[in-house]
Specification:
There is one protein chain. This protein has eleven helices and twelve strands. The protein is α/β, with parallel strands linked by helices. It has a single domain, classed as TIM Barrel. Helix 10 runs parallel beside helix 11. The longest helix is centred in the last third of the chain and has 18 residues. The protein is globular, with a radius of gyration of 20 Å. About 40% of the residues are buried.
Length: about 325
Amino acid sequence: MNVVTLIREAQATGHTRFAFELLPPLKGEGARGVYDAIDPLAEFDPAYINVTFHREGIKRTVGPDGRIEEHVARRRPGTVGISAAIRRKYGVETVPHLICGGLSKYDIEDALIDMDFLGLHNVLALRGDKSKSEPRFTPHPQGHAHAADLVRQIAAMNRGEFVDGEAEVCHHSKFSIGVAGYPETHLDAANPEADLQHLREKVEAGADYIVTQMFYDNGRYFEFVERCRRIGIEVPIIPGIKPLAQPRHLTVLPALFGITMPEALRHEVEARPDRARDIGIEWATMQARELKAAGVPVIHFYTMGRTDNIRRIAQNVF
């Protein structure tokens, strides 16, 4: 089933659903670690599970002659494969992420064809981050510079249009397309207004729903939804929550994602750093309860592969 259908059903019934995001395994690891992360959450009937996509990196090794050699390597390959394995094992819809960074239009098309063959009919379309070897994001020479262009390619494939043109005989894919939204503005955006216009462009290109970047003040989410509605963005907007788990998150997360930490949360963690994980669970529980009371159709949790804290929040809310 398409994720947007699940979201619309939740809206119609007034029943807030639970969803979460996982990392694919590190290269060389099996699927057991992913299943161990999912098992404690299965009882909460997740609407769907997202699986992230990770860019290539540069691995440096010293050759026999002493010269440094560089190789392109991926630490977490297998997004499409583990998504299909999760769906088969748990009977839950999965949403593989797909990014612009490091991929040509042909790479993207091949990945989409694999997803379609595997019965994966949902995708989260992202520009992705810059490579660690780049001073700023640089698109593949035959790829896309913006997430809106990636959305257009996926939507075109749904219509039977491929990179090299239309196929004479065509099985049409039926991808539900999600995109990212930023309540506190994307780090690379010129200003909040420009960021919102880019989001509208993604929706006009064919996005079915939006999932937000993490935030720690629900007021920012509600304001973001109002701003979206005022400029004509009408698709569902799913809030994303990441429970704070370590004292260093007070500085690391704002630096990486351009978000702000409420002073009350900062004060609590700084006063009791040994209780940071428990404080993060309590804060996220408060956020989730308020969002649920407001009638959001789905609450999306960022797990980074650890789900013990997400389970405690789910027990409190769902």
